[in-house]
């Protein structure tokens, strides 16, 4: 955020919000293992809003503009399907059934009571995927109903577990249980925040969990990974994966890059084929142990796993590891996602940083979606079902995260002008004057679908974000200026598929 004299009054509020947010996350949140998914020409991504940058800035941080879409090569990819896929079972999701895959859930002892439970009746519900086709990995063992949670760090080298500071939380957590303290944040007497640092130990889980999954579920054609704050639209993912030969090495998901490794972003969910597993883990029964030091030296578990797979020639990407990927595995949650003309019609594969209420609603949408009748659930379908009905023409105390073009009293003489489409110069320059003027400027630009205005600042965008507001009783209404947001949904209605 650019600090000028005009928003000095916001800074105390922003700093306080950042601190509160920081405390909450440092205490509470296991690492996503996420990094900035840097965009390179030729990589296709539904959205390059980096989860990691959202982690390190305020929740209102501006999303990074999305790349220009390029020709989707997904249609060029090898359409092979194995003979085993054909005929034997009823056709579903392009031939791939939940019985054919292993759905791998990663959670942590400091987050499971807050995030995992909703998945047991949705993502991992036996009506959706047989119990034996899912597995839950954590940093402690536990039984919840018919679900067995596996301590995936059980075989980590004893010396590391006993003395490495990254494992403080692993060593400390059992004492909470032993002292009858509940790390649940349930708002019930006896609650405790638990030991800090769940996110540090989290990165050590990735390689061991993939090793364990492959050894214990050798029949799975795909290992489909998710975290406890991910939602995977499983029918769409099965349809997507069915286009690939699982006996070949495939490593698919959302593009991310760090420490010279291109890998699948963990929080967005990803898939590793059995072929890829055999080519890597299958060649080295000691892979998890061998990666302990590399893990200690690097930040993110998804990058560590990518490195391990790379070492055995398994590369990320849709065409034999070419780093290309289809839109759909999203490293952000739906209300921070920029819906655009070019991503609107692609099937929706995942959301990340989801809350329990999101999971409940997504699952309901997925469950009652008739694929035969309507085809795969697209971003557009999602928008029509769960976003559009809640958008008003104009909402006060709401930030819809429009940010592509900003006109303020400071730049009114030479404001940035849209690269695409036509706009009215006069209205554009006056956009900062009021909410009405801002709306008029947006209407005058034929590509604009949303705007927001506060004090003397008008922001407009050709992407549609839902954003978030302050409820009437929210204390922010006493500490911030009112921001007004508006959407031109009738323009989005024209983005047909
Ligand atoms: C740990 O090792 C034992 C013995 O080899 C094995 O049965 C178990 O599955 C391993 N656990 C994990 C999480 O890898
Ligand atoms: C889905 O739609 C098809 C075609 O209209 C119909 O035959 C089928 O019964 C529907 N399935 C469900 C579960 O409603």
UniProtKB/TrEMBL annotation:
<keyword id="KW-0808">Transferase</keyword>
<feature type="transmembrane region" description="Helical">
    <location>
        <begin position="9"/>
        <end position="27"/>
    </location>
</feature>
<keyword id="KW-0735">Signal-anchor</keyword>
<feature type="domain" description="Fringe-like glycosyltransferase">
    <location>
        <begin position="218"/>
        <end position="292"/>
    </location>
</feature>
<dbReference type="InterPro" id="IPR003378">
    <property type="entry name" value="Fringe-like_glycosylTrfase"/>
</dbReference>
<feature type="region of interest" description="Disordered">
    <location>
        <begin position="48"/>
        <end position="94"/>
    </location>
</feature>
<dbReference type="GO" id="GO:0016020">
    <property type="term" value="C:membrane"/>
</dbReference>
<keyword id="KW-0328">Glycosyltransferase</keyword>
<keyword id="KW-0472">Membrane</keyword>
<dbReference type="InterPro" id="IPR026050">
    <property type="entry name" value="C1GALT1/C1GALT1_chp1"/>
</dbReference>
<dbReference type="GO" id="GO:0000166">
    <property type="term" value="F:nucleotide binding"/>
</dbReference>
<comment type="pathway">
    <text>Protein modification; protein glycosylation.</text>
</comment>
<feature type="compositionally biased region" description="Low complexity">
    <location>
        <begin position="51"/>
        <end position="63"/>
    </location>
</feature>
<dbReference type="GO" id="GO:0016263">
    <property type="term" value="F:glycoprotein-N-acetylgalactosamine 3-beta-galactosyltransferase activity"/>
</dbReference>
<keyword id="KW-0547">Nucleotide-binding</keyword>
<protein>
    <recommendedName>
        <fullName>N-acetylgalactosaminide beta-1,3-galactosyltransferase</fullName>
        <ecNumber>2.4.1.122</ecNumber>
    </recommendedName>
</protein>
<keyword id="KW-0812">Transmembrane</keyword>
<comment type="similarity">
    <text>Belongs to the glycosyltransferase 31 family. Beta3-Gal-T subfamily.</text>
</comment>
<keyword id="KW-1133">Transmembrane helix</keyword>
<dbReference type="Pfam" id="PF02434">
    <property type="entry name" value="Fringe"/>
</dbReference>
């Amino acid at each position: 955020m650019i600090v000028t004299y005009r928003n000095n009054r916001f800074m105390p509020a922003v700093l306080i919000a950042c601190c509160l947010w920081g405390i909450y996350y440092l205490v509470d949140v296991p690492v996503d293992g996420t990094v900035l998914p840097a965009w390179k020409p030729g990589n296709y991504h539904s959205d390059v809003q980096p989860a990691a940058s959202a982690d390190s800035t305020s929740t209102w941080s501006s999303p990074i503009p999305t790349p220009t879409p390029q020709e989707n090569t997904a249609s060029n990819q090898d359409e092979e399907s194995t003979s085993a896929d054909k005929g034997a079972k009823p056709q579903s999701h392009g031939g791939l059934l939940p019985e054919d895959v292993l759905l791998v859930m990663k959670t942590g002892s400091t987050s499971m009571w807050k995030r995992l439970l909703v998945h047991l009746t949705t993502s991992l519900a036996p009506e959706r995927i047989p119990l034996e086709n899912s597995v839950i990995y954590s940093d402690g063992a536990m039984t919840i109903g018919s679900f067995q949670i596996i301590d995936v760090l059980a075989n980590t080298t004893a010396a590391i577990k006993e003395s490495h500071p990254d494992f403080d939380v692993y060593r400390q957590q059992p004492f909470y249980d032993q002292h009858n303290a509940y790390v649940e944040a349930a708002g019930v007497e006896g609650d405790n925040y638990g030991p800090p640092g769940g996110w540090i130990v989290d990165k050590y889980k990735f390689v061991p969990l993939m090793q364990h999954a492959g050894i214990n579920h050798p029949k799975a054609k795909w290992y489909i990974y998710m975290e406890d704050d991910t939602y995977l639209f499983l029918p769409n993912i099965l349809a997507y994966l069915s286009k690939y030969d699982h006996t070949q090495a495939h490593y698919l998901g959302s593009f991310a890059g760090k420490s010279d490794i291109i890998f699948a972003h963990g929080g967005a969910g990803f898939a590793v084929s059995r072929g890829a597993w055999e080519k890597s883990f299958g060649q080295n029964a000691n892979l998890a142990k061998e990666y302990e030091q590399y893990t200690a030296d690097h930040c993110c578990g998804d990058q560590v796993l990518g490195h391990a797979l790379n070492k055995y020639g398994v590369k990320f990407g849709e065409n034999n590891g070419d780093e290309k990927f289809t839109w759909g595995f999203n490293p952000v949650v739906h209300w921070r996602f920029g819906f655009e003309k070019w991503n609107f019609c692609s099937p929706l594969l995942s959301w990340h940083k989801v809350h329990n209420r999101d999971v409940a609603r997504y699952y309901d949408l997925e469950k009652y979606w008739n694929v035969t009748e309507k085809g795969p659930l697209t971003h557009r379908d999602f928008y029509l079902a769960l976003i559009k009905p809640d958008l008003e023409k104009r909402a006060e105390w709401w930030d819809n995260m429009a940010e592509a073009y900003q006109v303020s009293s400071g730049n009114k003489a030479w404001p940035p002008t849209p690269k695409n489409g036509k706009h009215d110069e006069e209205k554009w320059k006056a956009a900062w004057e009021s909410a009405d003027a801002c709306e008029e400027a947006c209407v005058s630009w034929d590509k604009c679908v949303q705007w927001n205005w506060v004090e003397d600042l008008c922001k407009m965008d050709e992407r549609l974000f839902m954003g978030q507001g302050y409820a009437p009783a929210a204390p922010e209404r006493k500490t911030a200026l009112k921001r007004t947001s508006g959407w031109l949904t009738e323009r989005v209605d024209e983005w047909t598929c």
